[in-house]
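We give its fold:
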Amino acid sequence: MNLYPIQFHPILKERIWGGTKLKSVLNKEITSDITGESWELSGVKGDVSVVSNGEYKDKSLNDLLEQFPNELLGAKIHDKFGKEFPLLFKFLDAREDLSIQVHPNDDLAQKRHNSFGKTEMWYVMQADFDAKIIVGFKNKSRREEYLFNLEQNSLLDILDTIPTKKGDSFFLETGTVHAIGAGNLIAEIQQTSDITYRLYDFDRKDANGNKRELHVDLALDAINYDLTDTQKSYSDREDQANTIVDCPYFHTSVIPLRHEMEVSKDGESFTVYMCVDGHFAIELGETKYEYKVGDTVLIPAALKHFKITGYGTLLEVFVP
């Protein structure tokens, strides 16, 4: 495999709650005022990413996985996941509140949908003055209390609401009831899954006057009714990888890049960089690859040594 940093064409998604920040802040070529998501790197069936640069331009992620599974994923990840890319990377622009939802764990998702579950994390790139998120319950709850409040249209009374600001990070294990509130621009890292149970959608209607489907019954067995600790603190040491989340599905660090850093990997996993602020470059020998805020880059596992330079903030992600 010819080793170089690989980029992909964004897969843009219109959403009833979407806006225009993906263009105004992240320079995505959106054509709609309700663009809610940019899928940066995806192996989800029907939404597989296509390479946008270099020798493998116009090949799909699946093409590369078929041809170079060990070089791209790393032998350990290939052994565990086969030729499936295990993570999904997105940017989300919430002009309005997203629906209140929950994701099933691996066992439930496999049983019902032949899919992975959906453990995920959020990094807040920009937040309006009054932006908030919903994560979990205010107090330990139970199935009966949840259903009562849902029927009484008072679900928000028992859910925990947290104000957000730039740099906040949240880890959402499967079963955590959650919603991104209006005014948030977020980088999202998650298991490769598109399984979502929608609990409440504020009685909104789409352009055709229809309410979106709810999945109340499916959600009952998926919800974690205990208290959850979702907000993650982390160090801000410059030119170093500062761990935010270390879970079985992904390890995510934030890099406050101010000068440069040498990177040496063990070749056991691919690495993905999401530029959430500023700009950076990857230097391979005499070749420099330059990136800006909103760019996402896949480093094949077999590419073990390189240098990062620039001034910005990066999320660094790999599979432990």
User: Anything to note?
Assistant: The CA atoms of residues 106 and 117 lie 4 Å apart. The first strand starts at residue 11 and ends at 19.
